[in-house]
Task: inverse folding
């Protein structure tokens, strides 16, 4: 079942790293151009002209990388196809800046979130009105710009209109799914305890599709890949997307702050309806359900509460079960790729990415 | 200086009304299709599937109408060009839903704002967490969908790719200007008293360009109009856009709630940095500046305070001055059109629209 030879692995890791660097360069340059074009007058006095290009750096460029690997299943190495793929990173910046406002997340990638940067600036300048409110509104507007600029980067990437035309339906679907999925997420967060089924539904619609499946399908569509290739990438993407989200949810509860860039147990403090909490509820016995009810009723989730949460999640078996779910989905994802007979370069890269997206420390 | 004959006026009013009805039909149908496509799972349980199509109704379709009139300066009557123009109404719905969250506006077009609809639903369902917060987040996501769908409607309107290619640069510019302008607006609202110059800068960048100038330029670009036509439309649009915003600001302070669909003096209550307040400060004498400072320092703007505001604005001459500014800009806008030698249909329509956009009661 090993689809990647050791030599292939090392080569793929280097290739993927080079793609990430190039994407990072492309999106930063594009955002800097747009800032020069649009920021005059009042808005130029805000931190926006510095923050907008800075925020696009420091990510893992997962979505552009998946899109470009999808492209390479049917297309040649191409700087313009990589620019098309890079547009998904701006879409991701849109989602991050906006989600952090909605979730009240103060940190992102080890730095203050976008809305925190703007609210601090408001306070430092001694402006009138609520600094928090100003910060949130400004971050939402910054997110709007990323959403608009993503599509603009894609349309002007240099691919022929006929090639782009194959990608637009997937791109549009991805964007709508993202917003509708986030609405489902909000709704799950607004229930005391959403069911495992409801959480899995949102994971499938939003995170899973958005991070792996649609980017792969988008790249493959641009390259005009045959149906059986798109289907295999879809299977891989659906499975790996779920595994990725389970890992992300485990890291949000158990992750090392030095690695995640967020405080320990952050998802618990923000009362997110994650797969970890939903599965804990699903697996809890009578006594554990009592402990769960107590933890959910707490007004403040402090250090001690995080420790109690950790113990409960582990005791119900939810942690082990999610690790098994991850292993199972990664295995089936790799099988789907193995059977599709893809070219070596993308096949090897998908093996490496399956590991990178689900490793216990990232 | 009368560019419109009485017969031409009646004909144009009927033509413009027919355009509005057709636009309203097109955007509502498009949104209903998108809702059917995307709303399954958790998010389908929210009011979104009903609210999204409803919210696009009831507007004045100013931006699509200006875009289509721009198109008619160089193109024939065309149902697909009207669909392209209609995409600007979805962009406007995006702006309205999002601005109402940022401004804390509870009503829009005589109905509860988007975020109020969602927060009420949250309360009625007895969900956990803050209902206001949920409402605001859901409205921002609904706005995202309108932004995405606007571009999708435009791309798929049925115009040839080569025709669309002429319109994208204006469309992209309009979208970025809108977000950057709103950021400038926030910043002006966050100063105790922004200068007349700062307010005028934001009006030119945001409202003026966004409502009249860019839509006209967008339509004219799609139709491949000659440079001198685009320039004349730009002049008209810049001038009428300012006049439109001055009228809007006057209505926000002095308007009849039965007509505006908003409470009397709403802009004063929301402490918006409008042209009315900035010009009042600019024109106030020493004693009036004292009264202004008192009004600005009030914690709550009640009925009595609104009356004091009205008296002060009128006494400084700001109200009369804005009326003169409006008359002056409308006159110069019509001159620009008169000199350009446009076809009768769009020339007549621009005369009617200049009046409709700036009349004292709307």
Result:
């Amino acid at each position: 079942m090993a689809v990647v030879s050791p030599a292939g692995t090392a080569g793929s890791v280097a290739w993927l790293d080079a793609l990430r660097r190039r994407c990072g360069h492309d999106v930063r340059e594009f955002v800097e151009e747009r800032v020069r074009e649009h920021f005059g007058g009042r808005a130029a006095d805000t931190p926006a002209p510095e923050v907008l290009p800075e925020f696009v750096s420091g990510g893992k460029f997962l979505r552009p990388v998946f899109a470009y690997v999808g492209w390479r299943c049917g297309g040649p190495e191409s700087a313009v196809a990589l620019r098309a793929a890079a547009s998904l990173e701006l879409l991701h910046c849109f989602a991050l800046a906006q989600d952090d406002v909605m979730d009240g997340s103060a940190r992102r990638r080890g730095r203050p979130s976008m809305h925190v940067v703007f609210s601090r600036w408001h306070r430092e300048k001694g402006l009138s009105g609520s600094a928090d409110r100003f910060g949130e509104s400004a971050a939402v507007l910054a997110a709007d710009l990323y959403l608009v600029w993503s599509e603009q980067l894609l349309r002007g990437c240099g691919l022929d209109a006929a090639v782009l035309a194959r990608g637009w339906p997937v791109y549009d679907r991805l964007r709508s799914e993202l917003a509708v999925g986030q609405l489902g997420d909000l709704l799950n967060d607004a229930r005391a305890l959403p069911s495992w089924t409801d959480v899995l539904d949102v994971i499938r619609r939003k995170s899973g599709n958005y991070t792996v499946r649609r980017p792969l399908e988008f790249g493959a569509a641009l390259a005009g890949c045959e149906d059986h290739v798109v289907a295999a990438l879809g299977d891989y993407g659906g499975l790996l997307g779920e595994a990725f989200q389970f890992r992300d949810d485990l890291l949000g509860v158990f992750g090392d702050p030095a690695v995640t860039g967020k405080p320990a147990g952050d998802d618990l403090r923000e009362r997110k309806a994650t797969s970890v909490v939903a599965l804990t509820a699903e697996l809890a016995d009578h006594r554990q359900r009592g402990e769960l009810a107590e933890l959910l009723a707490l007004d403040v989730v402090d250090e001690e509460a995080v420790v109690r949460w950790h113990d409960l999640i582990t005791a119900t078996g939810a942690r082990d079960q999610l690790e098994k779910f991850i292993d199972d989905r990664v295995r089936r994802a790799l099988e789907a790729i193995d059977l599709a007979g893809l070219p070596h370069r993308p096949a090897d890269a998908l093996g490496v990415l399956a590991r990178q997206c689900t490793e216990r420390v990232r």
Notes: Residues 6-38 of chain A form the longest helix (33 residues).
